[in-house]
Amino acid sequence: MANAMTRSGHVRAILVLGLPLIGSNLAQMALHVTDTVMMGRYSVAGLAAVVLGASSFFILFILGSGFAVGVMPMVASAAASGDETEGRRVTRMGMWLSLIYSALVLPVFWFSGPIFRALGQNDQVASLAEGFMRIAGFGMAPALLVMVLKSFVAALERTQVVLWVTIGALFVNAGLDWVLIFGHLGLPEMGARGSAWATLGTQTLTLIVVALYAARHGALRRFELFRRFWRPDWPALARVFRIGWPIGMTSLAEGGLFQASALMMGWIGTMQLAAHGIALELASLTFMVHMGLSQAATIRVGRARGAGDPVGLRQGAIVATAMSLGFALLAVALFLTFPRALIALWIRPGDPLAAQILDFGTRLLAVAALFQLADASQVMALGLLRGVEDTRAPMIMAAISYWLIGIPSSYLLAFRLNLGGVGLWLGLVVGLLCAATLMMLRFWRGRGQGHGATPGAGVTG
């Protein structure tokens, strides 16, 4: 009975943490969809520029977000061990690293026009995208700082505020898009640049709200998060850098896998690329659930590690993994049972390619059933390993799995064995399955046994 109660307690704890994080992830995704829908109603060239600029921003963002993600297990472990000073130190240096990274990548945004033209974009789209990027580049710092602060409050098991702030940002961004893109309320019509200003305004306002919450809320005020913020803390900065940069590279490797898959699907055909985009959107929606559960697992494992509780660490990991796989099985059933109805949600009635997209998309969703299990396992393994601050080996495993195995497998199956788009997706499954296997084995055969690195000792900061 004790074990059953313990497991039920883990289930409850993971749901309390995970559901707001899942909601926040879905709201974040909806925020980007809003930009696309608004620009789609403005102009085709503007939409192309925003899609190009936003995807470029995202690639640079996920690379720099590793420091923010790395803060989460470090704060969770410090809080569980009663070391509030350590929690403040690593969060503060996570913000420092985010600011430094934002300054380093700003020239890429400012001189993005020539880069886009060198990559084959026409002058009109490249010019519009450069205008978007020059504004959006200044949003990198607030976006990353918000992510650090969200990691801080989530690690202290205050995930509901993360959800409500993200939902609020969604509505603010939609309102600013409406005003600035189309020129309502007496303001000038700015198109793609208006979308960038809307995003920057939303990011800045979100930062102010989250920073005030972290600094002024009664339960968090004792951390004195911004006390002597200007003072460098080189040992803490080195620890956050050591944990964070491999996380950013891991995310970049995975993001690059899907960017490469879109490029290769475009070689096959326009209809196939459209179906690929729809199927990937569906897979991304379910992935947000797995990511939220993975983030909750990171927090639970980090706290168990900080409290010196290897049994709780292992049981929490088992429960989180089982919950993620359980949802993956539900998604598999949904994809196999209602594929055409799901794909039809993305197709304009009367589209001449609708029948072909439905048929091809149905085949891709059948492969996405395998995709679900592999993707759920790899993101959960990443969350568990991050909970014990193990990030460098997973980075290497991800790079090998995605770039040396996944992408070559996709190319071989699609073009050499003539399986087309279905073969391309099977290659993605191969890469994700390799990553999941390697990372799960690393956790359960070593790091999940309580052999991870010892949390850093607190030093006054």
List the keywords.
disordered C terminus; 461 residues; 2 domains; 82% helix; mainly alpha
Topology:
Elements lengths: L1 H39 L3 H21 L1 H15 L3 H27 L1 H7 L4 H14 L3 H16 L3 H24 L8 H26 L17 H35 L1 H37 L3 H28 L1 H6 L9 H34 L4 H25 L3 H25 L17
What would you say this structure looks like, in words?
- There is one protein chain.
- This protein has 461 residues and is an all-alpha fold.
- The protein is 82% helix and 0% strand.
- The longest helix is centred in the first third of the chain and has 39 residues.
Q: Structural class of the helices, strands and pairings?
A: mainly alpha
% residues in beta strands: under 5%
* Unreliable runs: 1-5, 451-461
Q: Sketch the major β-sheet.
A: none
Query: What's the SSE pattern?
Result: HHHHHHHHHHHHHHHH
The residue fraction in helices comes out at over 70%
What's a concise summary of this model?
The chain is mainly α and about 450 residues long. The chain is about 80% helix and about 0% strand.
